[in-house]
Amino acid sequence: MQVTETLVEGLKHEFQISVPASDLDAKADVKLVELKDKVKLNGFRPGKVPVSHLKKVYGRSVMAETIDQTIRDTNTQIFTERGFRLATEPKISMPTEAKEVEDILSGKSDLTYTVSIEVVPAIALADFKSFTVEKPVVEVTDADVDEAIKRIADQNRPYAAKPEDAKPEGAKAETGDRVTISFKGSIDGVPFEGGTGEGIQVVIGAGQFIPGFEEQLIGIAANETRTLKVSFPKNYASEKLAGQAAEFETTATAIESPQDSVVDDEFAKTLGLESLDKLKEAARERLVAEFAGATRQKVKRMLLDRLDEAHRFEAPPSLVEEEFNLMWNSIKAEMESGGKTFADEGTTEEAAKEEYQKIADRRVRLGLVLSEIGEKNKITVTDDEVSRAVIERARQMPGREKEVWDYYRSNANALAQLRAPIYEDKVVDFILELANVTEKKVTREDLYKDDDAEKSAA
Questions:
Q1: 310 sits in which H/E element
Q2: Residues 6 or more apart whose Cβ sits within 8 Å of residue 297
Q3: Helix or strand (DSSP H, E) at 218
Q4: Which element (helix H / strand E) includes 439?
C-alpha cells in the first residue's frame, strides 16, 4: 500500500492511496473461504463448494465488500498514525469510468483513490486556576417580595360587571376590560376549522389573540355584534391559516372591568396557600431561585468570554459554515415571518452576515474547547442525568408526560440535544471549581442590565 499526502492547507489534508490488486485479491479469497460454510448451492454439499466456483458466483460482490472494508481500515490507520481528529466525515473520490471500475472489481488493477479530510486543531488548554470570575449576588428584599405579590395579585384580580353608562347602549369595553364573546371566523366567506368559539373571555390588551383582534373590541357593548377583520401571522402554527386574511363575526355577551385585589390571608387561600405569610415565603423562595438562575447565566457568559479570549485558533471551516447556515436560515425565516428587513434592524445583509460569521466561529471554537476539557478530565453525562432531564421536560407539559417521554426515548437526536447542555454545564462547573471566583453584591437592576440591553437591541 502506498500513501501520498497531496495537500496540506490549514486544517485541510488530502491523501492519494494505492492498494495493490494482489492485496485485495488475497483479502477477497479469505472472505470467500469464510463463505464456504454459509452458502448452499445446488449440486454441492454444505462446506464443499470450491473457492474457484464461489469466486465465479460471488466474486464481484465480495470484492466490492473487500474494497469498502479496505478503504475504511486504511483511512483509520492513516488518521490514527498522524494523530488526526476529524472535524467532518472524510470525502472519498473513487474511479468512475466503467472500465476502471470493472478492472478493479475483477482484480486486474490496483485500487487508487483520494481521501480529503478536515481536522480539529490541537488545542492547548489554558490554566483555569489563573481565571478570575466575579459572581454577582443579589439579596432578596422585602420590597422585591411585595412587588412579586403585587404582580401575582394583578394576574389574579377579580372582574365585575361594568357599571351601565347613561347612554342607552350601556357600558363600553376599554383596554384592560374583560369581554366575553362568541365568534364565527371565515376566510373569503368560507368558515374554517377551529374558527368558532362560545363564551370566550378576552382581556383587551393582554395579547392573547392574533394581532388586531383585541383592539377592535374597544368600544363594544354587551349584545353588540361586530365583524372583526384580521390577518393570521405568517408564522402561525397552522400552515393553512398562516398569512391568511380572515373575518370574525363577533358578539359580546358581557363586559367586565378589573377590580382591586385585597392581598390578605383569604387571597392566599385562593392560591392554595395557608396564609399571607406562606404566600410571602413562597414568593421569596421563587425570587431566590430566579436570581440564582440569572446569576448562573451571567457567570457562565463571563466564563465563556474568558475561554474565548484564552483559546484563539483556527476553527474547522466546514463546522463554522454549518453553524452559520443554521443560524442564518433561522434569522431569515424569523425576519420573513415578522415582515422585517435588515434596514429595520439598522444594518445591512452583508454586515449581518459578517457578524453571524463571527458568532458561528466563536460557537465552534468554544464547543471544541469545552469538548477538549471534558475529554481530558473524563467528564461524562450519565443516563440517569439525561433521564432526569427528560422527566423535567415532561413535567413542564402537564397531561402530555407520556408523549414527551416516548418522544425522547425513541429519538436519538432529541436525546443528544438534551445531553449537550448538561455536558456543557458540567464542564463549566469543573472550570469554576478551579477558577478564582469572588462574590460582588449588586442590585436587581444590575443583575438584569445586560439582558435588558440585549432585549432592547433585539
A1: helix 276-310
A2: none
A3: none
A4: strand 436-441
pLDDT tens, residue by residue, 319-328:
999 999 999 9
Residue position matching grid coordinates 434569522: 331
Higher-scoring residue by pLDDT: 208, 52:
208
- CA dist 184 → 142, 201, 248, 373, 450 (Å): 48, 15, 5, 59, 45
Q: How far apart are CA 183 and CA 324, in angstroms?
A: 45
Question: 52-99 pLDDT, tens per residue?
Answer: 777 777 778 888 999 999 999 999 999 999 999 999 999 999 999 999
Amino acid 146: pLDDT: 95
pTM for this prediction: 0.75
How many CB atoms within 10 Å of residue 387? 15
Kindly report the number of other CB atoms within 10 A of residue 392's CB atom. 11
> Rounded to an integer, what distance in angstroms lies between the CA atom of residue 136 and that of residue 305?
16
> Could you identify the residue written with the cell 473520490?
93
DSSP state letter for 436: E
Amino acid at 100: E
Cβ neighbours for 369, distance < 8 A, ≥ 6 positions apart: 123, 125, 307, 311
Query: Which letter does DSSP use for residue 241 in this model?
Result: T
- 264 close to 284: Cβ distance less than 8 angstroms: no
Distance CA 44, CA 34 (A): 16
CA angle 256, 261, 266 (to 5 degrees): 125
Residue 455 has pLDDT above 70, yes or no: no
- φ, ψ at 109 (rounded to 5°): -130, 155
Cβ–Cβ < 8 Å for 251, 228: no
CA dist., res. 334 & res. 228, Å (int): 27
Query: In terms of C-beta density within 10 A (0-12 exposed, 13-18 middle, 19 or more buried), how is residue 91 classed?
Result: exposed
* Strand residue runs (E) in 241-340: 245-258
What pLDDT, on the 0 to 100 scale, is given for residue 458? 34
